[in-house]
């Protein structure tokens, strides 16, 4: 699993760079070159889908991280409370 995360580092940045390049190629393409425009549209859609997948994965990682932070905070509060001497009434 750690290997998958290492492979994914920077994938979003690479996809955004690719999208910028595709945007420039689209702007430079002639309006009469229908085949090239269709190919560019397909490439843009592919990058778009990959970016959406990356966003969903990041959202899931944020949720997991939030649960872990909550658990750690709870653990810290319980540990701190157990170290206090009992109060006298």
Can you summarize the main beta sheet?
A: none
- What's the mean pLDDT score? 86
Q: Pairing-aware structural class of the strands and helices? A: mainly alpha
The proportion of strand residues reads under 5%
Molecular shape: rod-shaped
Element order: H for helix, E for strand: HHH
Q: What portion of residues is helical?
A: over 70%
DSSP summary, beta strand count: 0
**Multimeric state:** single chain
| Helix count from the secondary structure assignment | 3
Number of domains: 1
C-alpha termini separation = 53 Å
Rg computed from alpha carbons, rounded to a whole number of angstroms: 24 Å
Which residue ranges are poorly predicted, with pLDDT under 50 across at least 5 consecutive positions? none
Overview of the structural elements:
The protein is mainly α and about 90 residues long. It has one domain. About 85% of the residues lie in helices and about 0% in strands. The chain has three helices and no strands.
Summarize the structure.
This protein has helices spanning 2-8, 11-28, 34-83. With 89 residues, it is mostly helical.
Relevant terms:
single chain; 89 residues; 3 helices; mainly alpha; 0% strand
Mind sketching the topology for me?
Elements: H1 2-8, H2 11-28, H3 34-83
Helix pairs in contact: 2-3
